[in-house]
Design brief:
This protein is α+β, with helices and mostly antiparallel strands. It has 13 helices and 16 strands. A hairpin with a 2-residue loop joins strand 8 and strand 9.
Length: about 400
C-alpha cells in the first residue's frame, strides 16, 4: 500500500471510533495546550519585566556601598558611609566612558501645602539624575548641575505629588511647599512615568543633592551613585573603569575586599531573564508530564485496536501483505492521533495564553519554536508509544489471527 492509502486507512479508523479517539487524544491535547500556554505566558512575563527595567535605562550603572567593619564588627551596608561626593568628581575625571553621573541621597518627608499634605520620598541629586532616569519636565523647568550641587531650597515634583498638594498641576510652579517644615520653592512638575514593579515613580520630590544631604539628613555621604554611558556598548568598559578606580586610587577596600558593589541595569535584565526563562521551562516540563500520560493512553488504545482487528490483520497477512505495511498502518494511525491532538492542543494553549495574559495584564508571546516543539513532541509521542502496538500487529501469526474470535 502507498503511504497515502495508509493515511486514509488511519483516518477512516479514527473516524469510525470518534468518541474513543477524542478521549485517547485528551492527554495530548491537555499536555500540548499546557506547554504552549505556559511558554507563552513565561515569554510574555520575561518581556514585561525587561520592559519595566528598560524604562530605567539599559545604560545605567549603580554604585552601592558594601559592608563596612567598625572595631571588628561587620556593619549593615545601608549604614555604610563609604560613598562621598569626591568619588563622583574622581569618576568624572578618570572614567572617560561615563557620560552622566550623580550622587544620590534618599529620605522621606511630609510635604505640606496649606491644608494638603503627602508622605513622599525625597531624592537629593545632581541634574544628571533626570537624564539617567529618563525624567522629563511637563511644567516649569528642571534645575541645572550648578543648582544640584548647591544648598538652594528648590525642588521638582512628580505628578502624584502635584495632584496631592495642588488643585491644578500648573499652579504648583513657583509655589512654596514645606518638607519637614523646611520651605522649598517648586520650579517644575515632571511628566508622568507611571508604575514600575508596582512602585509609583510619580510619587517623588527631587531637590539639590547638598540641600537634602546636609539640611534635611545631616550626613556627609551618599546612599548611592548613579552613572550612565552615552551608549549601551560602553557600559562594561565604564563599569571596569569605576571598579579599577575604586579598588586602586580611591582605595575603597577592607582587607583586600571591595567595600562597594557595582551593578548595571543590563545585568539585572539578564538575571531576571534567566530566572523567568528557567521558571518557564520548569512549568513547561511539569505540564509536559501529561504528554507522557497521553502517550500511554495512545499505546493502550492502539493495543485494544490491534486486538479488535486481529482477523483483519490475519487476512491481510494471508493475502501477502508485508509485515512492514502492517507495522506502518498502525504506526501511522498512532502518529495521526497524536498530531491531531497536538493541533487541537495548540489552539487550546493559544486560548489559555490569551485569557491568562489578559488577567495578568501582560502580552502572551507564542513563538514559532514553541509550536514546532509541540508538534515535534506530539510526533515523537506517536512514534514511541505507537511502535509497540504496531510491532505486535506486524508479528501476528496469520493462521492464529484468522482463527481469532
Amino acid at each position: 500500500m502507498k503511504p497515502i492509502d495508509l493515511l486514509k486507512s488511519a483516518l477512516r479508523s479514527i473516524n469510525r471510533n470518534r468518541t474513543r479517539s477524542l478521549l485517547t487524544m485528551l492527554g495530548i491535547i491537555i499536555g500540548v495546550g499546557s506547554v504552549i500556554g505556559m511558554m507563552a505566558i513565561g515569554k510574555g512575563s520575561e518581556q514585561s519585566i525587561k520592559g519595566e527595567l528598560g524604562k530605567l535605562g539599559t545604560n545605567m550603572i549603580i554604585i552601592l556601598p558594601g559592608e563596612e567593619r567598625r572595631g571588628g564588627v561587620r556593619m549593615d551596608a545601608s549604614t555604610a558611609e563609604i560613598l562621598k561626593e569626591k568619588d563622583v568628581e574622581a569618576i568624572e575625571t578618570y572614567c572617560t566612558d561615563v557620560e552622566y553621573i550623580s550622587p544620590v541621597v534618599t529620605t522621606f518627608a511630609q510635604a505640606v501645602n496649606g491644608s494638603r499634605n503627602s508622605k513622599t520620598p525625597i531624592v537629593g541629586a545632581y541634574s544628571d539624575y533626570f537624564i539617567i532616569n529618563n525624567y522629563e519636565v511637563q511644567y516649569g523647568q528642571l534645575f541645572d548641575n550648578r543648582t544640584g550641587k548647591s544648598l538652594q531650597k528648590v525642588c521638582v515634583i512628580g505628578k502624584t505629588v502635584a495632584e496631592d498638594l495642588f488643585e491644578n498641576q500648573q499652579d504648583a510652579v513657583g509655589e512654596i511647599i514645606r518638607l519637614n517644615k523646611i520651605p522649598f520653592r517648586v520650579i517644575g512638575v515632571l511628566e508622568e512615568k507611571g508604575r514600575t514593579f508596582g512602585m509609583d515613580r510619580d510619587n517623588i520630590i527631587i531637590a539639590p543633592f547638598r540641600t537634602v544631604q546636609r539640611r534635611m539628613m545631616g550626613v556627609s555621604h551618599a546612599n548611592q551613585i548613579l552613572a550612565a554611558t552615552e551608549d549601551e556598548d560602553q557600559v562594561k568598559r565604564a563599569k571596569r573603569e569605576i571598579n579599577d578606580l575604586f579598588m586602586g586610587q580611591l582605595n575603597k577596600t577592607s582587607g583586600g575586599e571591595p567595600m562597594f558593589h557595582i551593578q548595571t541595569q543590563k545585568e539585572m535584565m539578564d538575571i531576571m531573564g534567566t530566572i523567568t526563562g528557567m521558571l518557564t521551562m520548569l512549568l513547561a516540563a511539569i505540564a509536559g508530564i501529561s504528554l507522557i500520560v497521553g502517550g500511554i493512553g495512545i499505546m493502550n488504545i492502539m493495543l485494544v485496536s490491534v486486538t479488535e482487528r486481529t482477523r483483519e490483520i490475519g487476512l491481510r497477512l494471508a493475502v501477502g501483505a508485508p509485515t512492514s505495511v502492517i507495522l506502518l498502518q498502525f504506526l501511522i494511525e498512532s502518529i495521526v492521533l497524536s498530531l491531531i491532538g497536538g493541533g487541537i492542543g495548540i489552539m487550546l494553549g493559544y486560548g489559555l495564553a490569551i485569557g491568562a495574559a489578559s488577567l495578568l495584564g501582560i502580552e502572551a508571546i507564542i513563538t514559532v519554536s514553541s509550536i514546532a516543539m509541540a508538534f515535534g513532541f506530539s510526533f515523537f509521542v506517536g512514534v514511541v508509544f505507537g511502535f509497540f502496538p504496531a510491532r505486535k500487529a506486524a508479528r501476528l501469526n496469520p493462521i492464529q489471527a484468522l482463527r481469532h474470535e
